[in-house]
Automatic annotation (TrEMBL):
GO terms for cellular component: plasma membrane. It catalyses: 3',3'-c-di-GMP + H2O = 5'-phosphoguanylyl(3'->5')guanosine + H(+). This is cyclic-guanylate-specific phosphodiesterase. It comes from the Bacteria. InterPro entries: CSS-motif_dom, Cyclic-di-GMP_PDE-like, EAL_dom, EAL_sf. Its EC number is 3.1.4.52. Residues 266-518 form the EAL domain. GO terms for molecular function: cyclic-guanylate-specific phosphodiesterase activity. It comes from Arenimonas oryziterrae DSM 21050 = YC6267. Signal peptide: none annotated. It is found in: Cell membrane. It is a multi-pass membrane protein. The keyword Hydrolase applies. Keywords: c-di-GMP, Cell membrane, Hydrolase, Membrane, Transmembrane, Transmembrane helix.
Amino acid sequence: MLRRRRIMFGSALAALVGVALLFGSIVWFLWNESVNAEEANAGGLADALGRRTEHIFLDTRDMLAGFDHLTAERCSPEHLRALQDAAVSRPYVRAIGYWHAAQRQCGVGFVPGEGLKPTRADRIYDTGVIAWWPSPQTDVGGVQLFLMRFGDHDVAIDPSLLLDLGPMERRQAGLWVEKLRMASSPVGAQLPLPETLPVGVTMDRAQGRVVSHFARNGLLPIDIVAIEPIDDFWHRHAQSLAIGAGVGLVLVAAWIYLILRYSRHQLSLATELRDALAEGEIRVHYQPVIELKTGRCVGAEALARWERDGGEAVSPDVFIPVAEESGQVQDLTIAVLRTTVREMRKVLKEFPAISINLNLAPDDLKNDRIGTEVARCLEIAGLPTNSLKLEITERALVNSDTSRALIRAFRDRGHQVAVDDFGTGYSSLSYLQSFELDVLKIDKSFVDAIGTEAATSQVIVHVIEMAKSLGLATVAEGVETPDQVVWLLAHGVSYGQGFIFSKPLPAGAFIEFFRANRRSHP
């Protein structure tokens, strides 16, 4: 370890001296920094616009769903007033209409009374939402509108308001949603298609322009493309280039030193982790899972622990992201699996009704390597498949096709599958229904809000009801007070884990805890 650190320090020092000697590279470096700054600025703007577009789509869908629950007689003054209030509170909404038997019966806003009737929908979603992208068929007063229909109501949205870029000067930009053009500024701007461009900032010197393309793959695939004259780019960055060239080597050397120091730290941690995995230095602690009604320990969650040379503990919040970024997360999961089976083999054989929870990262569900290793370890140890319960996060469900197939395979082999940290990402009842799951774990942030006035204090109720509707067992994480236990029991939560019961324990201490618990709760 010390030798590796010395080598890394020497490499950083050599890089610093090399940059100092190559003063001519300063101009190139500052140019590169200017491009990075441009990408950061454009990327930040694109991300903000993408988030705003996603919010508008979700808000519009929820608004339309809410209309179907109105008790007012359709097309009555009360009904129209509700539509008007919804439209006025959303600047991007141009009209809302009520439909019956393929005819627009009434509505509010700025579209013809009979409504817009494009011939063919661009998207029909499983949720029941039907959408038409802007086209000549949705043109009203020279503005091509975006239409969304859900239930008996539809809404017309001015897509130009989704593309709020501030002062435009000579910049042109376009917004694509699901690879279909949604809006451009100015209207009708001639822009290259996103699929023809690399992500980032590109200098098109042949046409004298700067082209930016940024993609956001969240709830909806969103692309933003912008072009502007290359002269504007030079004008924005000319002063910084001139000052940087004048100040020269000192600032460049300082910047490079900081970057190398950061890179050295990251590389060192990733390399140390690789060595720790190879040398079997990853330890496992076990946090008991308690049946709230009886107080009996029914198993534990296996948690990875790592101490560097000299006894320095590395937080899982640090080394697990490093493992994911450096492609070592499956090796880490396998190390935890093997240690867990080895340490818990005896108690799992003696008490076959209990199980140990093994956490799986999103990358663990990209192929069946983990599934194969789980089966191999259990077979060697002579343990049944229900000895291990597998925990996945909401993030792991994003790659739904692959995840769904692997989850089904785990359950076919006899493993229960739990969703961990539920509620911290984007999940819905219909989305979870598409996966075969057994247990829903409620995130600590929602448990902390029990009995408080926090905005999230009611979320846990909805999470519990969602789990009940899907027939899932519930486990509350981070339980710390008796009042939380009472509340969770009253609301039908079956299991809990947290410091009120026990902190994560080494194998020997956990087995002592478990046996003592079984003696006091036979």
